[in-house]
């Protein structure tokens, strides 16, 4: 019986290897034009310049968990149906020329292939790493237009509030901020919170960073989602603080120095937000009791399982 089973598995191995080779070839063929498009976007859009790093990290996450994967000869019906549906989504994105949906559907197709070949267990193991590729994809233009202006308004509003708290007389008109002690004279210093200063670029990068932190945080799914959601107010607060510092420096020192801070503050902002995320993670881990001892129980990686 054992010999028969071993012979059966060995007979399936060549077919499995051929199937995997064909699937890899198909995905290389499909990804080639999308990779060229994404490479151009990554090089031209500062908010997506981290795209190549996202791909490398995703591959690294899969490699680190390679020992956990089971056999790749499941051929599940559910996975086949999901693969067919995701393929239709990809065809629809090509037909409708929806830029962000093309790479998104290809990532979904890869996940469905894992489900089809390896079963739901392998899909759970790979899901967190595969979902991370979402952060390499440009956001829809409509979404960017809808959230960038509210971010501009919120950042300028909080910057005016913070400046007033420290005694800087700031007059706010929409996204225009002016340090003006006397309404009858010209402003001492003024700035316009443009879309590039709304914090959207930092938000995109920090969401990816928060995802990785949540991926390695041994807590329940909803706590991980909370950790990712904290990025929004954290980014808004730090961006408003940055604008306040620019206003203070521009009003009391030199506009050239304020401009230099504006042009070189991104690494500092990301560093402060990273510290904030790690602080929130520390409190979540201790609040849930997983940091009480070194024997932390394993929780399935995001975004699949909520034990």
Secondary-structure topology with pairs:
Blueprint: H1 2-44, H2 51-64, H3 77-96, H4 101-131, H5 141-165, E1 170-173, E2 176-179, E3 189-192, H6 200-215, H7 221-229, H8 231-252, H9 255-264, H10 266-287
Antiparallel strand pairs: 1-2, 2-3
Helix pairs in contact: 1-4, 2-4, 3-4, 5-8, 6-7, 6-8, 6-10, 8-9, 8-10
Question: What are the salient characteristics of this protein?
Answer:
mainly alpha; 3-stranded antiparallel β-sheet; 10 helices; 3 strands; elongated; disordered N terminus
What does this structure look like?
The structure is a single chain. This protein has 307 residues and is mainly α. The chain has ten helices and three strands; from the N terminus they run H-H-H-H-H-E-E-E-H-H-H-H-H. The chain has helices at residues 2-44, 51-64, 77-96, 101-131, 141-165, 200-215, 221-229, 231-252, 255-264, 266-287; strands spanning 170-173, 176-179, 189-192. Strand 1 (170-173) and strand 2 (176-179) form a beta hairpin. Helix 8 (231-252) packs antiparallel against helix 9 (255-264). The longest helix is centred in the first third of the chain and has 43 residues, at 2-44. The protein starts with a helix and ends in a 20-residue tail after the last helix. The model is unreliable at 1-12 and 292-302 (pLDDT under 50).
């Amino acid at each position: 019986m054992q010999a028969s089973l071993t012979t059966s598995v060995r007979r399936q191995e060549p077919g499995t290897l051929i199937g995997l080779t064909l699937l890899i070839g198909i995905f290389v063929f499909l990804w080639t034009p999308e990779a060229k498009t994404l490479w151009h976007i990554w090089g031209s859009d500062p908010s997506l310049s981290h795209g190549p790093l996202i791909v490398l990290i995703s591959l690294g996450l899969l490699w680190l968990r390679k020992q956990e994967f089971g056999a790749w000869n499941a051929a599940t019906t559910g996975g086949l149906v999901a693969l067919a549906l995701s393929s239709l989504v990809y065809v629809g994105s090509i037909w409708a020329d929806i830029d962000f949906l093309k790479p998104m559907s290809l990532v979904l197709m890869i996940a469905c292939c894992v489900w089809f070949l390896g079963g739901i267990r392998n899909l759970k193991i790979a899901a967190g790493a595969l979902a991370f590729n979402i952060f390499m994809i440009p956001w829809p233009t409509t979404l960017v237009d809808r959230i960038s202006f509210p971010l501009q308004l919120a950042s300028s509003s909080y910057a005016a509030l913070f400046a007033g708290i420290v005694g800087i007389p700031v007059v706010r008109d929409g996204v225009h901020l002016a340090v003006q002690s006397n309404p009858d004279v010209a402003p001492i210093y003024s700035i316009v919170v443009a879309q590039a200063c709304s914090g959207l670029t930092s938000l995109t990068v920090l969401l990816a960073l928060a995802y990785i932190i949540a991926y390695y945080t041994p807590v329940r799914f909803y706590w991980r989602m909370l950790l990712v959601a904290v990025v929004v107010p954290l980014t808004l607060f730090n961006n408003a603080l940055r604008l306040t510092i620019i206003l203070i420096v521009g009003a009391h020192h030199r506009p050239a120095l304020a401009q230099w801070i504006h042009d070189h503050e991104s690494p500092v902002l990301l560093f402060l937000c990273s510290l904030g995320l790690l602080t929130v993670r520390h409190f979540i881990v201790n609040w849930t009791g997983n940091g009480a001892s070194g024997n932390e129980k394993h929780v399935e990686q995001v975004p699949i399982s909520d034990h």
